[in-house]
Amino acid sequence: MPALEVRPFRRADRDQLTELINLHVAAVVPGVSVSVNTVLSALERQPDEFITDPWVSERVTLVAEQRDHVVAAAHLLRYRADDEVGGHYRDIAEINWLVHRPPASHWPDSDRAAGLLMSACLARLARWNVRARHASGDLPAPAVYGLPRNWPHIRALYERSGFRHVGDTEVILLARVADLPSAEPWPGVTVERTPGECGTRLTAYAEGRALGFIEVDTALSRPERHTRGTGLADIGNLHIDPSAHGEDLERRLLGQAADWLRLCGVDRLLAYEAAADGTTTDHLTSTGFRELTRTDRGWEHRP
User: Fold this and answer.
1) Are strands 268-274 and 299-301 parallel, antiparallel or unpaired?
2) At what angle do helices 152-160 and 110-128 cross, to 10 degrees?
3) Confidence band, pLDDT 50/70/90 cuts, at residue 245
4) pTM, two decimal places
5) How confident is the model at residue 202 (pLDDT cuts 50, 70, 90)?
6) Is the dihedral of CA 282, 287, 288, 292 positive or negative?
7) Of all helices (H) and strands (E), which one includes residue 257?
8) Strand pairing of 232-240 and 268-274?
9) I want to staple 266 with a disulfide (CB 3.0 to 4.6 A). Which of 22, 66, 124, 231 is the partner?
């Protein structure tokens, strides 16, 4: 059996690492892949995490290589212990993501490679001597975060290694823009388009009062990321004034957003919902969304 080697990432690994990451991305979101430049950039910093990224004091990327091929890889982060760091992140370290090839005829020992890589990750976390050790699967791609249910081989590895799910679960949904409600005449209501916190905000007003708004982020298909098909966006925020419930506002706002997305050349829209006990996603599935997967956030090492 060819020898396995766990070692630090080298720039020459970039194409094989990107292929391995895209194998896992494709199982979560259809038609999405990331470029080599996106992967390399994410190893150096996480520009989308503008709050937590400055708290990172150390980053390490490890790969498991066999037959000159990267069969597993992991990215580790260590957070500072000073008062500027948020309490939840202060003096912790995490496996930001770990991916490995599932067992196959041409990779019969990929589980062994993943196990050796995990041992190296845990050894590094131990040397950092932090307050707590966490894990996730936050790849540099839209809607790939937490630990998606589509990765049973990664979940099994985490659980064998002593990680336990202690956080929440979210539902990831996708709709074809063509299947979303159409923008209908809305007597007495005007819709204004402005920049929002998480994308373009469309706000419905009646008699000077804001009834609610929806935000759509159309920057998911920025040049360093590639999506097969026309384009991808997500719902950044959706808020309805409590006094306006019962006026079919969610459907009407989705219709306004769909009309704008068609003009943007976007053909798919992502949405996210908490999977708390007793809650359903019927309000979204009834408007054209379908469930892609569920993802479990918050894994802590509790051997």
Assistant:
1) unpaired
2) 50
3) low
4) 0.90
5) very high
6) negative
7) helix 249-263
8) parallel
9) 231
